Amino acid sequence: MEKYVALLRAVNVAGKNKVNMKDLKNALEKEGFQNVITYIQSGNLVLDSILQSESEVAVEITEVINMRFNLNIDVFVFSAQNYNQIINNNPFPNETIGKEERWMAAFYKEDIQIPKQKNTQAEVMAIGRVLYIHIFSGQIHTLKLPAFLGEYKKTITTTRNWRTTLQLQTILNSQE
C-alpha cells in the first residue's frame, strides 16, 4: 500500500460541484482505497492505495467522483514522499512571514517553470508541480496572481492555504 494526498479542484465552492465528503469516502473505500481521511469540505483527502502511481490514483478518484456524483472534477495526487518534499521545498522561511501575511500553494499536474518573482503584492516561486505564494500584508483580497503566471495563466491548478497544506501533511504522517 502506498500513501497519497489527493486535492480536488473547485468542489463545494459557492454551492457548485457539491461533493459530500462522507459519501466520497465511502465510495472510495468501496473501490479499494483504504484509510481514507477527508479534511474540511473543500476536497482534501489522505488515503492508501495499491495503485503504484499518482496518475493511476488520480484517474481512479476522478472515475469514482464521476460515477457517484456525476461530476467531472480535476484531481491532483501526490505520493507521501512527494507531498513531504513539497512542504520541505517551501522557499519562504517562517521568520520572513509577518502576522498579517499569507502563504498559499498552487498545485499543478505537471512541473511548471516560474522563476522567483516579487511585486508590491506578493512574491512567488515555482518548484516542481507547486507554485509557492507569499502574499504581503493587506493584499489577500486584491492579489492579481495572473501577473506572475505567464504561459501558465490558463493551466489547470488548485490552490490551498499553507495552513491546510501543513494539516494534510500532519494527517499523512500520523498514519505511519
UniProtKB/TrEMBL annotation:
<dbReference type="Pfam" id="PF08002">
    <property type="entry name" value="DUF1697"/>
</dbReference>
<dbReference type="InterPro" id="IPR012545">
    <property type="entry name" value="DUF1697"/>
</dbReference>
<protein>
    <recommendedName>
        <fullName>DUF1697 domain-containing protein</fullName>
    </recommendedName>
</protein>
